[in-house]
Amino acid sequence: MKRILLIGSQGQVGQELQYTLPELGEVIRVGRDQLDLSDGGKLRQIICETKPDCIVNAAAYTAVDKAESEIELANAINGTAPQIMAEEADKLGATFLHISTDYVFDGQQNTPYLETDPTNPLGSYGNSKLIGEKLIQQVGGNSIILRTAWVYGTYGKGNFVKTMLRVGQERSELKVVVDQVGCPTWAKDIADAIALLLLNSATPGIYHFTNSGAVSWYDFAQAIFDEAKLMGFSLNVKQVIPITTDQYPTPAIRPAYSVLGGQKITPILGTYPPYWRDSLKQMLKQLHSVTS
What we know:
Distance between the termini: 38 Å
Oligomer: single chain
CATH topology: Rossmann fold
CATH architecture: 3-Layer(aba) Sandwich
Helix content: 25-40%
CATH class: Alpha Beta
Shape: globular
Number of domains: 1
Number of strands: 12
Largest sheet: 6 strands, parallel
Low-confidence stretches: none
Order of helices and strands: EHEHEHEHEEHEEEHEEHEHH
């Protein structure tokens, strides 16, 4: 039986992976409470002790705005730690799967980004993730980099869906950015895709995976409220007002268009990724049953 080391088991994707990875073998879970990813020595020790056949890294520094003032920490967690994982996996002859992000792109395109398109991150978070990608590729070995985007889930800490539900309960009027477009992606669908990549022994390299379809944050928020109301969530929001990025300044610059093309991964999955709104409905249904 394969031994799979899951790093970041308490996060949004990590908790979903706890349901999909056991089909492939014995899962050894390591969460934030057991491992500080900025401690490279401890990370190497855990990998050496567990001797996995596969390492899945679902952990990351994801505070996009905070990264502008914590560059070294972001680079350590998103850059150096994945490099160490790749190195140790290579020594063991193990597969390494690492999750990356749409933020490695600058958002200047108006067609979906392919795995081969040039990267150009706009902020420290995206740059830290790109550093990780490059260091993994320098190590070589059997490493898979899976870029995804706009991740939300039932479990783990806050995300856009949970935030909208919270503020939609507190306020009658909200302002949401309309000029940033991407692909909302359910953590469960990412976990399913990761399991299939490993099960089907995908060729090492970079892959893109998001739910199908593209939408603005404003339209995503509208959809969240529409679907949540139908399911009986308690909401007070009456109006969502579209605003521009300039009207909502943040420390980090976000890509205006970060849609990822999924043509490369589709044959491995055997099907197109689920449509974003269908997955949103499934997540809300799950969240409603968990919280009610």
